[in-house]
Amino acid sequence: MKERIQKMEDGQDDMEQDDLLGWVLKHSNLSTEQILDLVLSLLFAGHETSSVAITLSIYFLQGSPAAVKQLQEEHLQIARAKKQSGEKELNWEDYKKMEFTQCVVSETLRLGNVVRFLHRKALKDVRYKGYDIPSGWKVLPVLAAVHLDSSHFDHPQHFNPWRWQQQAVCLVASGKRKKFNIERQSDGSPMPIRSWCSDRRTDVAYCTEQNSGSSGATNNYFMPFGGGPRLCAGSELAKLEMAVFIHHLVLNYHWELAEPDQAFAFPFVDFPKGLPIIVKHQPLL
Ligand code: HEM
């Protein structure tokens, strides 16, 4: 930063400097410390996290051909509709149709645990579930422990994006409760339960909608972006980045691991070999 400031003062400011750091130095009145915090936050909070998350999705998906196939179908439908209407760029409406992709994103974040734990400090003495936490002690809530807890997720070590699909719990003729995936209309919106449960399934007596997982909101069992007032500021952007990446990946490429590698999780998630993959250009459209 000092070098930059010196260059600016010496009038040696060129286009190479025309980046975030250059912009804040020129146009803001933030302190040096605030600028440093901003740049570091964007690099580590904003870049490392989403790139690791995307890497994890590549890794998990190569082990789940059924998920790749379902993604391809979802994205082909979107891409075909765009081609027909002569549009090119993805837009918000397309993103909203990426239902199964959201399941893949949630499952990647649950199993991958990009941010494994948070840092907190007790500001006063706290008694929690029989434990005394003295004021000033550091508390590390371990998000990964919740995401991999078998009392919240069946077979928690298994990559299963279908667990996030919206489901309806229905009472069937035999008197048992059964889960059904909610059917979708051509625009991707959920079909009213009544229209598919009673007309098409004679065994369904009564239905109550239930969301088996939540891809967006935080709940106590799924909080890859933290929660409360310090909820990740980039959570929606991160999910969008992942979805757009997956869109182009499954529509255009086939990939496999070049050599065995697996995520290593301490203290930060990373692949020791950098997850080398062999990529073939295989456009589906
Ligand atoms: C998959 C990607 C991401 C994950 C898993 C993630 C996770 C998190 C988590 C768990 C926190 C809360 C930290 C805490 O409570 O102590 C957080 C905070 C934050 N994240 Fe993200 N993040 C991701 C992507 C991004 C992106 C893309 C940006 C910005 C472009 C971003 C910006 C921030 C900022 C500024 C905070 C601090 C919010 C505050 O303290 O008020 N993150 N992130």
UniProtKB/TrEMBL annotation:
It comes from the Eukaryota. This is Uncharacterized protein.
